[in-house]
Amino acid sequence: xxxxxxxxxxxxxxxxxxxxxxxxxxxxxxxxxxxxxxxxxxxxxxxxxxxxxxxxxxxxxxxxxxxxxxxxxxxxxxxxxxxxxxxxxxxxxxxxxxxxxxxxxxxxxxxxxxxxxxxxxxxxxxxxxxxxxxxxxxxxxxxxxxxxxxxxxxxxxxxxxxxxxxxxxxxxxxxxxxxxxxxxxxxxxxxxxxxxxxxxxxxxxxxxxxxxxxxxxxxxxxxxxxxxxxxxxxxxxxxxxxxxxxxxxxxxxxxxxxxxxxxxxxxxxxxxxxxxxxxxxxxxxxxxxxxxxxxxxxxxxxxxxxxxxxxxxxxxxxxxxxxxxxxxxxxxxxxxxxxxxxxxxxxxxxxxxxxxxxxxxxx
Length: 363
Ligand SMILES: NC(=O)c1ccc[n+]([C@@H]2O[C@H](COP(=O)([O-])OP(=O)(O)OC[C@H]3O[C@@H](n4cnc5c(N)ncnc54)[C@H](O)[C@@H]3O)[C@@H](O)[C@H]2O)c1
Ligand SMILES: [Zn+2]
Known about the structure:
Blueprint: E1 2-6, E2 13-18, H1 25-30, E3 37-42, H2 44-60, E4 64-69, H3 79-92, E5 98-104, H4 106-118, E6 125-129, H5 132-138, E7 143-148, E8 151-158, E9 163-167, H6 176-193, H7 195-209, H8 213-233, H9 249-258, H10 267-284, H11 290-302, H12 314-322, E10 333-337, E11 343-347, H13 351-359
Parallel strand pairs: 2-9, 3-4, 3-5, 5-6
Antiparallel strand pairs: 1-2, 7-8, 10-11
Helix pairs in contact: 3-4, 5-6, 5-8, 6-7, 6-8, 6-10, 7-8, 9-10, 9-12, 10-11, 10-13
This protein binds nicotinamide-adenine-dinucleotide (NAD) and zinc ion.
């Protein structure tokens, strides 16, 4: 088992990574003393695969266990689902020592963390991420949220879990496209902070994509370490240190929006194209050489991810870009690679360079 510590003084916690960990969840949680009665928040699909063994693992070590189900889509991150969940939890809170367990992807994790942060002004919660995206990104860092009609993630809180249990075996049932999409975030970590991880991916991408448990545990732990370090240094995301996590996300969000959040390019695929766009911009600005830019594009492609936004209209992408909240005071801002493992935040880039980079990736 690999262990990554998120250092936040009294709110510090561990990310535990390895195969088969969720069957030991009872023992792992016992040490954390999160409470007596676990309320496991999940959806019916995940319950059908992992519900019984998780309940058994918790009961074996003396925890009380109940399940609460939420819809299986982004719709679960709504104020109505959050309110209903709060009421159902209150109805079950017999022993007054409950804690919540998020068993699911980023949707379940964000919602459960948010509900945990407001129920009784805060009860402990635990993350058991079941998607690769949640294991390397959303379950780490304490950003919890629900969506409002005005925007995604508009209501939320910073609220850290007691532990994150990243069991790589849970990813076996994950649909292949989702798995691949999350590889974009792992490549991102390599480019922004970790040459070693990048090189490892270049050599071992087949193993990782094939679900090799050792390779997966390795890349998840490297990714978790990078996100944890950034979170430890900037817990509330107000020092500007977490901004580098947006590499690929500026153009990526615009591509995601321009494809109408349809099935054409999902989040990870959009980020993959966004990383290619950012590499092109960096190349045009001579921040990176052609060899390193080529390595980035080539690794994205080897992982089966797109580097071109075929069929999208430049006009739509520009419209979405100009709405990007990360564009400060009308000036554009991009996180650009300055080699492998190093990034620079560049502002006020000439518009023609951005447009050229985007247009060249549209066919
Ligand atoms: N809090 C953060 O810092 C943060 C960071 C990034 C993303 N997010 C949020 O994460 C959410 C996206 O998360 P996601 O990509 O994990 O998607 P998701 O939670 O919607 O899960 C994707 C789908 O896969 C299914 N699934 C999950 N695990 C499975 C498994 N092991 N086997 C089979 N099916 C499985 C789910 O039921 C769902 O249908 C978004 O709401 C986004 O806003 C949050
Ligand atoms: Zn992302």
